[in-house]
Each structure stands twice: as C-alpha cells, then as structure tokens.
Amino acid sequence: MTLRCLTSLLLASALLASPAFAVPGAESFFRTPKVSHVALSPKGGYVAMVTTLPGGVSVLSVHDTADVARATNIIRTSSEEVIYAVHWINEKRIGFTVKNRRIEFDGNLDELAADRDGSNVAHLITGNWNHQQDTTGSFITNKLLTADYAFFDVLHDGSDDILLKKYYWNNTDATPDHARLFRLNTRTRQLSGLEGSQPTSVQDWLTDNRGMARVSWSQQKGRCISHYRTDLAAPWRELDNSECLLGGGFTPAFFDGDDALYVRADHQGYGALFRYDLKTMKRDPEPTISVPGFDYTGTPVIDYASRRLVGFHLYTDAGTTHWLNPALKADQAKIDSLLTTTTNTLYCADECLTAPVLLVEAASDRQPSQFIVYHRASGQLEGLGHAHPDIQPAQMGLRDFHRYTARDGRNIPAYVTLPPDKAGGPRPAVVLVHGGPAVRGATWEWEPEAQFLASRGYVVIQPEFRGGTGFGSEHFKAGLRQWGQSMQDDLADAAQWAVKQGWADPKRIAIVGSSYGGYATLMGLIQNPDIFRCGVASASVTDIDLMFTVSYSDASQESLKYGMRTLIGDPDNAADAARFRAHSPILRAAELKQPLLMAHGLEDKRVPIVHATRFYDAVKRSNQNVELLTYPNEGHGWRHDDDRIAFWTKVEGFLATNLRDAR
Fold first, then answer.
1. Same-domain check for residues 320 and 440
2. How far is residue 152's CA from residue 131's CA, in Å, rounded to a whole number?
3. pTM to 2 decimal places
4. How much is the average pLDDT of 166-180?
5. 607 found inside a domain
6. Among 302, 268, 301, which residue's Cα sits nearest to residue 286?
7. In sequence order, what are the residues at sequence separation of 6 or more whose Cβ sits closer than 8 angstroms to the Cβ of residue 43?
8. Ranges 323-332, 356-365, 368-377, 420-429: which has the least confidence
9. Beta-carbon neighbour count of residue 298 at 10 Å?
10. DSSP assignment of 64-119, as one string?
11. Are residues 385 and 404 in the same domain?
12. Residue 231's CB: how many other CB atoms inside 10 A?
C-alpha cells in the first residue's frame, strides 16, 4: 500500500465520527484561495504570504517565524489586481508581482520591491504598455521599466539585485520572439546588462547556483536548442539540438554546484533525470531519478549556503519528496508522524540545512492546502492558514488513481473521485476532460472542479487520455494527430469502464471540459450519443481549421508552422485536412441532439469567441436545448471569482436537471 493510499484511508477513518455539515456552496470551492504564495525568507527568520479578502482584495504580509502572529502588511491591492508571485530578494527585502485581472494576456505585470517592514517600496516595472521609459539626458528621474521587462529570478547572493528578462517581438507574433537577461538593483533601480555575449533568439535561460546565466534555450523550426558556457567571458557551446515534441535529446533542468547540470531525458520510454558532467560533456549512463510508469516531473531543493542539491519534489500519482540529506529525511519523518492524515510537502529557506524552521504544505485528496511553520528545535507546528477554510474534509469524496484498458489495448491512467455519501449502487457520473491537450491533467491532491461535482453526488472520472504528458513517450505519441479519433475513444472507454466497475449509471453520464476539453465534450456528444446524456463545454475549439487561419489568436508562427502541425495535423496535407473536416464539431453540429451548456470569454485570445458563436448558431438549428453563456471580462480561463462561481452554479443546476434527476 502506498503512503498516499494509507493517508487517504487514515483520513477517511478519522472522519467517520465527524458531525454532518451543510454542503458548501460553489463559492467555497471556486473563490481565489484565501492563503497563497507562502514563502520563507533566505535565513528562515520570516515568512511571507498573500491573503485574499472578501471582494478579491489581496494583502501581502510578512510574519516573524519566531511568532507568526507578529506580522507587517506590505501591500494591499484593489479588487481588480491580484498578487501573482512573491520572491524574497534577501533576508530584509522582498519582491512581488501584481497582475491586472482585467487584461487577458500575461504581459500586464507590475513588479515591486519593499523592505520586510513595508518601507522603501520601489515600483520597478509597469504593466502599462503605454508607459515610455526615459532614455536620454544626464538626470533620468523616471527609472520605471516598461512592460516588456519581467521578473526572472532572485540571485541568492544577499544583494538587493534581481534578474529580469526583456522580451522582444517579431513583426507577426503576439507572443515574444526572444528574450535577454538584465540585472536590476531593487533599491537604486540601476539596470545593467549581463557581461559577455548572449546567443540570439533565446527564449529562456538557466542560471547556476550563483545566479550566472550559463545555459540558454531556444525553439526554432520545431527544434529545441540549448547552449552552455563555462563563465561569463567564455564562448557558447551547443549542448543539444533535437526535435521538441518527438524527443531524442535532452532538456537542461537545473545546476548542482559549478560543473554538474541535471537534464531530463528518456529512459526506457519515460522521462528521467540524469546528471550531466559539464567538464566531460557527458551524461551519466544511469538516471538519478526514474519512476516506473511516470515521467519525471519535479523541482530541485537546493541549499544555497552550500550550493548543493539536497532533495527533489516530484509527482507520481501524487506529490512526494525524495530527500538526499539525512537531517531533512528526519524532519520529514517527524512531521509525518505529527500530521498523519495528509501528505506533507516541506519547503526550505535558502539556507535549507541551518534555518530554524521549515514551511509545511499539508494536503490530501479531501483537504485543500494548509500552511504550517515547523520549528526544528522544539518540534512544534504553528499554523499560518488554509487555502479554502470553508471546505470540510468530511464533505469531500475519496479520490484515487487507476488505470483502465482502452479498446485498442492501451493502458490509460485516470483519477476517479467518488461522492462522499455512502449511497450504494451506480451513480450519475461526469467524465471531466482536461485541456491542453499535450499536458498532464490532474494529480491526486484536492481539486475544486472534481470535488465540487462529487459533493453534488456525481462520480467524477478524469482520464489521462493519450496525447497527454507525464506517462511516457509512447502514451504521448499515441495521441499525435488523433483529435476526435483515438483520443476521443479513450473518453468513451473511460465512461464504459466506470460502468463496469459499478460506479456509474450507464444512463446518466455527462461529459464536461474546457478548451481542448470543451472540444472533446462536443465531439463526445456527437460521436457517442449512446454514452453521454448531456455536456458542458467552455472555451471550446469548434473548428480545427479555424485554429490555423483566424488572425486574432495568440498562437505564434512557430506554433502554427511546427508545433500544431505535429500535434494536430497539417492543414496543407490532404489527408489531415480531411480529418479536420471529419472531426470538427462545427461541421457536425446537426448531429448533436443532447442538452448542452456552453460558456466563453469575450476576450479569449487562445480560442477566440468566434468558435463559440458559429457553433451555437449552427447547433441551434436542430437542437433548442442549448445555451451559450458569454463573459465580457474573461479570456481563456477565469480571472474573476464572481464569474467562475456563477458559471459553476449554472453547471450545478444544468446537471441536476439533465443528469442527476433524469430517468
């Protein structure tokens, strides 16, 4: 039995005697987390956190870890702004990024810094694209940087400096073409370019444990290219040049010390982590971390005092940590003995081995994240707050990881969340389809959409269908050019598998999804009317060809010419174009007869609203049980709590009428 399964069973048994609570409303699931962006200062003397107040106002506060009740508020936003990221610059100074909710794209970020007592606030970067930076004259008084700059990383060197990216655009794309790195003093706002040359057309950088940019990464004509240099004055050498999507090479991940680079590469069909010696320019023959059945997906834990790797946070079916340091292993064991009903992720200060405290994020399938300070000397725990304090674990469903067999024999992973009540027999069910689609859809930990639906009495099935990542290269490649085909079959097979398990009522199964998941919802209703009784589709692709031709999407030319043609198909290829026509919902709208709820943001630049309006007009000609909800201030995904809560409240009513109470 895995630790995760044992944790879930312990929590379930602990809840048997819990008192009954009223089922929480949609707002308890879908409000912005009350506590987020929790981070320890470099020496562990302080902890920063963001608290979201009623109305959407965010407050950044700094707490003394010796007494977390002692706190200083650094900034309070308006309801139209959200604190997007928090990063300690040194023990005294903290940086934070503020995002405007009203603007769709990610470039509208203001960067600020302040001392931990709230003094010496500096506005470093504006998110206002109309701002013009002063560039001439002997006395430049306005040093506010323009919106084409963005925070990149802290330096972990005790200075007041941070690293910034500056983005550059070509003449055609809405997204940046390349970026360069700069260093900024957050007190004087003095900006300096990094010494030495920088390769052209670099999209991303990797810094070593001293904050020096030594690896660059770019994507050109479908190939991923990385370069390396030994120091700032040294020439750049090519590390790897391979196809981005079809594999064969490796991806630089992080540094350990000065000459050890860790890279992600294939091992027996799954992504694994290898050590790469930069002196010999050779990769170790055996991986450092390899998890059977899963790609390596994780982050390193670095002790910046010694500049050495001390552990890894990684995901298998659930989150876990692999510690290399015995003292941290002992800390983990002690905390796990105190918090027995959750999985407990430990986060270090920069001085990981000597800081007086650790930050604990405790969570389970039924419990949203709770943040706790662990005092190493006393072994005591001190709570900071809950992400979703209105959620009672007793009201949440048991969630577990499974694998089922698709019709062609392929093994497909899936998460299943069962309703929390003990009613027997098959239940109404929802196949919840993730977007992407070339991503991993879920993990075991508490998830608002799945648990909201389970709390309403539905069995929730989340297939990790072929074409997604995280489960090996063959699983990913099996989904290439399979929109509406075997990727779609995996969803129907998941529903039928849930019926065979005795969980799902075969006459009451819905399909729900957003983005690609919305596309799959529409195709599921069209191609499998005998399985799916109704559907909810938001931000949905409805016309595959339109993805390549619409002029006002945010897809780059690199994506249109290479990435999308590999993943979805080539519109200039006759066979692919025929598949687009056969598997585009817009051309098969007359076949959709079941109840359908659609939703779309009017500011969506990833899947423009024309996808929704054209399909809605087409399907209404033969199906009057269709509704389209539009949201003027939303893009591709939810930015406003009120809209997200209203949408899921609408979904609750729609499913109650067309699924739960239907016979």
1. no
2. 21
3. 0.93
4. 84
5. yes
6. 268
7. 91, 349, 350, 351, 355
8. 420-429
9. 21
10. ETTEEEEEEEEEE--TTEEEEEEEESSSSEEEEEEEETT--STT-EEEEEEETTS-
11. no
12. 11
